[in-house]
């Protein structure tokens, strides 16, 4: 008797669904490394991937693959190329992506797809997209400034033509990317930065040469660019907040007087974080406003900003050498007593804060 049908756990082609999910999950670390990779692009591999992507889409290969030192340089170059041909991003990137997503969604079902995405690309999406948004904002700021007219619209449209290369890693992490419709895109992603596919030419950007992030994954550097490309395009940031390059250069030489004189409240907060609230209170001659057995409450008023209020507490557990470490806790400006400040850090009213034993 002949029996035909689909084996349990397969998609009808012999592909095991669990194996597909495991393969994608196993590659997550590799795609995470790809997203944050710095250093020279593998130009040969990237160019081969670009040409394969065109062929896969049923298009003639580009006549030229042109390199740029950054997305900024690539965008400026594209604006000068009058014979580049139309954008083919839809055929090269969007169509194969949609095909693979439909296939995997049909294979796993809605709930299965949601769980699969959460375990793979979803774990990278927010942090990588935040970086993409920051790069895009930096490009617009440098290329068009505050212009909202025709030139700004042109640049925005060019940025929509971009394939994100290494920053497509979250999507690629969710799919088998070593072959099939996404194989060529994966090859470019592993090898280069953003790229722009047009009918006659493809423009490919180098990867960054430096990338600094804090523990939350935000751009962060107090000694130079947080993100830098080999041609000089760079973004400066402190704990995710964009700051001017000259501002970063000034941080190592800050004084309380310079901090007080800063008119921009957001930049002043960055200065205080870099300088250290406890050090600022000490160096600025601040005086305590309240003291009790819990600790000492300090307050210093700042122009056009909320005051800095902190509780100084002494660790009840001595260090190995017998000394006791001092901790500084920033508390709301409305705090009136040291005990109320410490209680606030535990999320309870001052009247309820009565620790049996401090550690």
Low-confidence parts lasting 5 or more residues at pLDDT below 50? 1-15
Q: N-to-C SSE series? A: HHHEHHHHHHEEEEEEEHHHHEEEEH
| Count of all domains | 2
Average predicted local confidence, pLDDT: 87
Shape: elongated
Helix content: 40-55%
* Class derived from helix and strand content: alpha+beta
- Radius of gyration equals 27 Å
Oligomer description: single chain
Strands, total number: 12
Secondary structure tally, helices: 14
Query: In angstroms, what separates the terminal alpha carbons?
Result: 76 Å
**Cross-sheet strand order for the largest sheet:** 9-10-11-12
Characterise this structure.
By secondary structure, this protein is α+β, with helices and mostly antiparallel strands. It folds into two domains: 191 residues, no CATH class; 97 residues, no CATH class. Helix content is 44%, strand content 13%. It has 14 helices and twelve strands. The strands form four sheets. It has a four-stranded antiparallel β-sheet with strand order 9-10-11-12, sandwiched between helices. Helix 6 packs antiparallel against helix 7. The longest helix has 31 residues. The N terminus is likely disordered.
